[in-house]
Amino acid sequence: MILRIILAGVVIFFSGCASVPNDQLYRDLGEMDGITRLIDEFVFEISGNAKLHEQFKETDWERFHEKLVTQVCELSGGPCVLEGDSMAEIHKGMGVKESEFNSLVENLMVAMDRLAVPVSAQNRLLAKLAPFHKDIVEQP
Ligand code: HEM
């Protein structure tokens, strides 16, 4: 009897874990539609940002947009996987400066404000992106 209760507890615990997917941020961002609109605005901001013009002058905007949608979908717990090189490998040798990184993050914040993304979701997305700082910025 005791064994059955323990077993039931274990089963409930694991099925509970499986039935609560950690996709709250993905849902708060409006799933694929919301994320696509967010990246539309983000890419629009980046492409018009004079401080970033030199870095992005040869960018394939369509590919960049698609990769960013996939990345934000994945990071927020959505059903996407960004394949390919790591953030460090992609940005290696670009000489990305701290000021450029901050400017790009400001572009994202403007995009999120424009779409009225709730502040708590904004903060959670920024927190997911923050660890990339060390992979992208090349210290002088
Ligand atoms: C949290 C910050 C950032 C994230 C999440 C991010 C993410 C990405 C992603 C997903 C790609 C596409 C990779 C691919 O094509 O496979 C990319 C490419 C690129 N990133 Fe970043 N990036 C960030 C910051 C920056 C900064 C600060 C710069 C420069 C100022 C930069 C410059 C570029 C450039 C030039 C490309 C190549 C675009 C192309 O030629 O198609 N990134 N980044």
UniProtKB/TrEMBL annotation:
Residues holding heme: H91
Keyword tRNA-binding set for record: no
Membrane-crossing segments per the record: none
Protein known as: Hemoglobin
Taxonomic source organism: Oleiphilus messinensis
Keyword annotations: Heme, Iron, Metal-binding, Transport
An example molecular function term from Gene Ontology annotations: metal ion binding
InterPro entries in the cross-refs: Globin-like_sf, Globin/Proto, Hemoglobin_trunc
Pfam families reported in the protein's UniProt record: Bac_globin (PF01152)
CDD domains: TrHb1_N (cd00454)
